[in-house]
Design a protein that fits this description.
By secondary structure, the protein is of the alpha+beta class. It is built from 8 helices and 5 strands. It folds into 2 domains: about 30 residues; about 180 residues, Glutaredoxin (3-Layer(aba) Sandwich), CATH 3.40.30.10. Strand 2, helix 2 and strand 3 form a beta-alpha-beta unit. This is Thiol:disulfide interchange protein.
Length: about 210
């Protein structure tokens, strides 16, 4: 092949690559597919890309999303720090956030997370008061005294209050929502109309942070 033809071929390939990169970059647009937070929220580990799920135990959508999200979490890249975060929009959600942090404090979150979802969504329990919550966890096989102590502990109440403040910082309007690296909020809205698409936007944003 003549030098000029080789040069023209290289230029054409570079142009095509540039167009492909541009198309990929424009696939998801701020303000349409995700929101850029006005004030970034500090993440737990600055060396990793944080992907945070804002959920509510009483949310049917979160219940449906859970197995889809769990599969994504199992296959995530090593540089992603996944965090579950109980959103607090109202008093009932605050009580349910307290359940999450109580389970975390007792070291039983892995065993009770799905069970709490089951109790609230398909079983339609409310778990809106301490006696109901304690009875439910006793039914799960937990010690009543330990549950009562953890539920009312200073550490659990502090984390629950912090969750209420952080929810205001993230500014979600629904659950489930995802926050990428404390900067971008992704929710089911507009063209993002499936949970799978929501995770594709999350993947796009994590790649954006890598670059």
């Amino acid at each position: 092949m003549k030098p000029r033809l080789i040069l023209n071929s290289i230029v054409m390939l570079l142009s095509l690559n540039s167009l492909n990169s541009f198309a990929q970059a424009e696939r998801y647009i701020a303000g349409t597919h995700y929101k850029v937070l006005e004030a970034p929220v500090r993440t737990a580990d600055a060396d990793k890309i944080e992907v945070l799920e804002i959920f509510w135990y009483g949310c049917p959508g979160c219940y449906t999303f859970e197995p889809i999200l769990s599969n994504w979490v199992e296959n995530r890249e090593d540089d992603i720090d996944f965090v579950r975060f109980p959103g607090v929009f109202n008093p009932l959600m605050k009580v349910h956030a307290q359940i999450f942090y109580m389970s975390q404090a007792l070291g039983i979150l892995a065993q009770t997370h799905d069970k709490v979802f089951d109790a609230l969504v398909p079983q339609r329990k409310t778990l809106s008061s301490e006696p109901q919550i304690v009875d439910q966890f006793v039914e799960f096989g937990m010690d009543r005294i330990e549950v009562e102590k953890a539920f009312n502990s200073f550490a659990v109440r502090t984390k629950t209050n912090q969750a209420e403040k952080l929810t205001r910082d993230y500014k979600p309007t629904s659950t489930p929502s995802m926050v990428v690296d404390g900067k971008y909020l992704v929710s089911l809205a507009g063209p993002v109309n499936t949970y799978q698409e929501m995770l594709r936007v999350v993947d796009f944003l994590t790649e954006k942070e890598r670059n």
